[in-house]
Amino acid sequence: MDHRQIHDFSVNPIGLGCMGLSAFYGPPTEQAEAIKLLHAAIELGVNHFDTAEMYGLGANEKLLGDAFADRRDKVRIATKFGPKFIFDDAGKPTGTTVDGTPENMRRAVENSLAYLKTDVIDLYYLHRVDPNVPIEETVGAMGELVREGKVRALGLSEASAGTIRRAHATHPIAAVQSEYSIFSRDIEDGVLPALDEIGATLVAYSPLGRGLLTGAMSRDNKPGGDGEYRQAAMQPRFADGAYEANLALVEEVGSVADHHRATPGQVALAWVLGRGDNIVAIPGTTRLKNLKTNLGSADVDLTDDQIARLDALADRVQGARYNEAGMSAVNR
Ligand code: ATR
Question: Is ligand 1 within 6 A of the CB of residue 56?
């Protein structure tokens, strides 16, 4: 597939969301296996890798640092700061807060540079907007990192159209990362037009609906177990009842996929990338086979009728994309 632009980087429209290698989707992938996957991804033409301070408390950034230290010129690395875990007295995380202060940014960026074993981060995001710090203050400080050569381009994640415009007036915003998929369409009315207006790229995260849209999940094969946050308390779409209803919608994606001898996940990715030339996707995977399948979405050319069928599914999805605490961190 033709490359697309983020800032002045030319990237494969399919990047790699690295979070699941270290956090939130069950136990972390073993280091040697994870590094093998990251190296194979480069060989397959992937050159945009997405991580965050939040993912495994630095473990995910350290993994990328180890994997890419000897091939830094072949990859664009995006990382993020802002959210922090809150710990109880026993050191167990009990929730999260967001800190968009320049002081927290300084602390975070120095850690990220060290963990990533690099002297420059290609794309540095504010991971969630801090309601207590004016966006001009946070982005003003982030702009200093660009001037100092520590960061090449700036991004925001889950920011509203109004916040994006205010941020861009402070310092050019190259990318906004938000959830976007056949099942999650919140950004279409405000954020996507704002990105067109300022000439920024959408980096679509969870383009596979956190795995739901791949067709690999079923009643009997539901995510669960240690370290897995796709469960009712955190992710209402995986609650009993909602999960089954959402799986029925995936069957409809599957019937479109059958026409292309493709998988539902490939159709889901083709749908996202078909929404605009300024959109790239970062499906997450821990498996080479799945990465290859995802890259195969480039061969899926959806017809207008098929797109209309897929467009109609969003209104029937059951459950919010995060629980209340998670949704309250989304800037609206
Ligand atoms: P996120 O952005 O949160 O990582 P996503 O990209 O929508 O979410 O989906 C990621 C999930 O889809 C992961 O659980 C991943 O599981 P694996 O690590 O086992 O691959 C799953 N996934 C990704 N590509 C897949 C594919 N081609 N087939 C089946 N599952 C896939």
Answer: no
Q: How far is the CA of 326 from the centre of ligand 1 (A)?
A: 20
Position in ligand 1 atom list of the atom nearest CA 209: 7
CA of 131 relative to ligand 1 center, distance in Å: 31
Report the CATH number at residue 129.
3.20.20.100
Kindly report, residue by residue over 29-81, the tens digit of the pLDDT: 999 999 999 999 999 999 999 999 999 999 999 999 999 999 999 999 999 99
pLDDT digits (tens, 9 = 90+) for 238-279: 999 999 999 999 999 999 999 999 999 999 999 999 999 999
Q: Which pair of structure tokens corresponds to residue 191?
A: 């954020």
Q: Looking at the domain assignment, is residue 186 inside a domain?
A: yes
Number of compact structural domains in the chain: 1
Q: How buried is residue 109: exposed, middle or buried, by Cβ count under 10 Å (0-12/13-18/19+)?
A: buried
The finding on whether 294 has its CB within 6 A of some atom of ligand 1 is yes
- From the list 55, 124, 180, 205, the catalytic residue is 55
55 counts as catalytic: yes
- Core vs surface per residue 44-53: b (16+ CB within 10 A) or e: bebbbbbbbb
| 126 DSSP β-pair partners | 81, 156
Q: From ligand 1's centre to the CA of 110, what distance in Å?
A: 30
Q: Which atom of ligand 1 is nearest the CA belonging to 223?
A: 14
Ligand 1 lined by 28 (C-beta under 6 Å): no
165 assigned to some structural domain: yes
Neighbours of 275 (CB within 10 A): 15
What residues make up the domain containing 131?
4-208+272-299
Answer yes or no: are the C-beta atoms of 68 and 120 closer than 8 Å: no
In a domain, 253, yes or no: no
Q: Please provide residue 310's backbone torsions phi and psi, each rounded to the nearest 5 degrees.
A: -70, -40
pLDDT bin (cut points 50, 70, 90) of residue 102 is: very high
